[in-house]
Amino acid sequence: MNRRKFLRRVPAWAAILLAWPVSLRAGILASPVATNRLRPPGAVPEDLFAGRCIRCGRCVEVCPYHAITLLDIRAGVFAGTPLIAVEQIPCTLCMKCVQVCPTGTLARIGQEQTRMGLAVINRFTCLAWSGKTLCRTCYDKCPFKNRAIVLDRLKPVIREDTCTGCGLCTHACPVTDDLGLKAVNIEPIYAHAE
Amino acid sequence: MAQTRRDFLKKTAALSAASYVGVHLPFDGTALAGTEEGITWHPGTCRLCGSGCRLELGVKKGEPVGLRGIPGARTNFGYLCMKGMLFWKCMRHPDRLTTPLYREKKTDPFRKISWDQALDIAAARFADAVRQHGNDSVAYYGSGQALTEETYLFQKIMRGGLQTNNVEGNPRLCMASAVGGYLTSFGADEPIGGYADMEKATCFFIIGSNTAEAHPVLFRRIMRRKLDNPEVKVINADPRLSQTSRIADKHLQFRPGTDLALLNGMANVIMEEKLYDQNFLSTYATFRQGKEKKEVSLDDYRKFVAGYTPEKVAGICGGNITADDIRQVARWFATATGTVSLWTMGINQRKRGVWANNLIHNLHILTGQLLKEGADSLSLTGQPNACGGVREGGGLCHILPGHRLVKKEKLRNQVEDAWGIPRGRIPPKPGYHTMAMFSAVNDGRIKAIWINCTSPAQSLPNCDHYNKGLAREDVFIVCTDIFPTRTTEYANLVLPTAFHFEKTGVYGCTERRSQLTRKAIDPPGDARPEVWIVREWAARLADRMKDPVISQCIKPFSGLDASYDLPRAIWTEYTQKVTKGRDNDLRGATYEVLARMADGVQWPALDEKYALTGGTTKKFVKGKDPLATIHSQNDLPYQFYGPAHPDRKLWVWLRPQADPEEMPDAGYPFYLSTGRIIDHWHTMSMTGRVPELLRANPYAYVEINPRDARRLGISPGDMVEVRSRRGVNLLPAKVYEGPVEGMVFVYWHDQEESRMINKVTKDAFDPGSKEPEFKICAATVRRVSGPRPLKPFLVRG
Lengths: 194, 797
Fold this sequence. Notes:
heterodimer; A: alpha+beta; 7 helices; B: 797 residues; Rossmann fold; 4 domains; six-stranded mixed beta barrel; 29 helices; 17% strand; globular
């Protein structure tokens, strides 16, 4: 396909998109980023992500833990962009993906500057907070031990200035509720930041 | 939900009161919601570590549905750790062994057989071995997880029936040095005090124990004490900065293997600064030296520790230790109103583990931090019944039940009389200790071995070397277990057993406390309780060997129901006949009494009335310990009566610093140490089958100090080869400010071939206690590749 042909087809695609039922159109344009569904480290704000990422898949390829997956056609305009489902395979913060990103969609940052999201503890389902048992799995698994998660009288507390949102705690959390959520979940609060 | 208005108001009041004072009670709304109809709760003891937490198993329609703590228990006050709360999930795991499995040759696949056939084969092979190769060609290797009744019955058949003292157990690998330490220092095995001292202590000295991960519920008690009373001092001495170090006021990070020097250095400060209790020493203690236990004077001792000045010791210990640190912790230790020392494998699993134990006891004897409230020298155990079953029940090659030495004829005769078998039936020579036993398997001197409830193929140090013996075709191996393990892979005959709560029996925890667990559910398939298996096997042995004495051994137990009456009869024989008149007198702790207690009974407990009060909290204290009162010879408040010290005194030992067997050198420049992680327990056959626990820690890794990692070019997650003169592992790296520089740390639960660290560890052992030096060997570390995705692994049979 040459450039001319491609350009000629753009209006047709736009027309198809406009003619698409409104309910589905929201699905096509909706960001996949949600609770425990995060972009890899150093990602630009979500509003820019789909435009900046060229869907080369290098970050997916380089990830040694297979944590980064490539979204498929069901993700609409976000198809081909990378996403991490932290309760399945969390990010180990090896920072290999940010090194290979050719476009700067994933900025070359260090481990500690990473802000994929923020861990939030559900004090109602958390075993330590609800007083059921002496669990401190999240505390033990945190790569910034005693910095990002601290223990206050044997109960875990998140320090938002240090938490990177890597999701190692979410993955290890022994609680899974009816909605598939853990007692500690990563909220992508930085994804839509200015 | 059945809850009256009155209950509700009571609980509301309790909760408001609790929240007012900042306590979190272990019951709450969600727990109440769990008490739905149709669930019955059965009290018992936790299956995992040696803390002895009491808990209840929830059963609905005959199936386990959950576990919860018992708030009235004096061990855990209703608190449980994650392992304790979740182990019920492995009870109905599809991997459970449910039928006897047999194979003629170890290379063949297993085939299912009936119990009749299985017991016939086991009896025939043991009888043949005895007939052709002598009594010492058969052996039993048991476990600190077997119930007391099981260990007792096994050793009775082996000693009284098959006339061999080849009775050993995995506690040799974990607390033999503590036994040696207690016997040589105090004259009697097992701690003087118990957990209750933690609430009264003002100084904790934790050495060689990562209590926070290995005994989390006890750690809560220490932490609670520290949080409520910030002036309480916590000293942690460990070459690795662990989770326990986090609450320490002082963390002494010494070079591995220099612990004896450190302890002598503290004693030096105590002597130099006159912090010792002159009165206590002159009344209750003597000083001893050398193999011949020569009595020496206080001045000799002073001269001996003069060689361990804080400056010199700081130089030996390296790490972050300064002379002033040693002075500071010695002062804290000596001047506190009560000091509790805690240790586990870091001290016991050493070439000189008994000496290290002695040196801790020394500090307590010197300063009089013993026998009073809030002061104790408390060795924590790692297995739920290492104390109760194996130490007290005669589960080691040199001891008979009731803390009796095999080599003493009088004591052998007492046991023979109690069993109603001819005198002289129990051989006078102690059997093989664990390492000698598996060396004998290697040499083919042992022809038939029964391995019960443990996995030596993974848990022995330098395991590849000993697994060669287990693989020999001329060694017949019977395994009794609930899951396939690394050891069942070497077995000829695998017998499926009932799990905890599927049978009845007693566990004895760290603090001399015996606790009953009654059967609550049926075992899956055709799994049977061990006591039934042993009784039936012994009956067949008696037939085959035409030996009426073997029949006599099981005669009191024939025909009894294996789920309750049989273990009760065994316990009754053991307590009433065999512990009578011994220091672990358990006559008061009958099944009826134990069933009435929220927790259990601490021995000595001579009668039921006394046992119902909970037993003896402090040994040797007149008025608290009935035996001390009976043995009393004077008006002093304490009376020692330990069988090992004829002078009835505490002994302060002169023990020099001793290096580990293998020191790092140019070829193997790192110290390698091993240990545990909170989510797993020992060889992981149970905790690995709980998805929540496995997900948190799916495989072993090696912890490397960041400075070493930088030097070797190792980044977090890289695959690293850990190699010693014996074996090699390939593990992902965790670069972490944990181990001291020049040391790497690996946890040993993983069953995967390339991550089984006991292929690498050293099988040198303490000449006194025969406990191997798992904790220290020399290794080399090399980066192999970048991170790789790894899969958890369990033996599936």
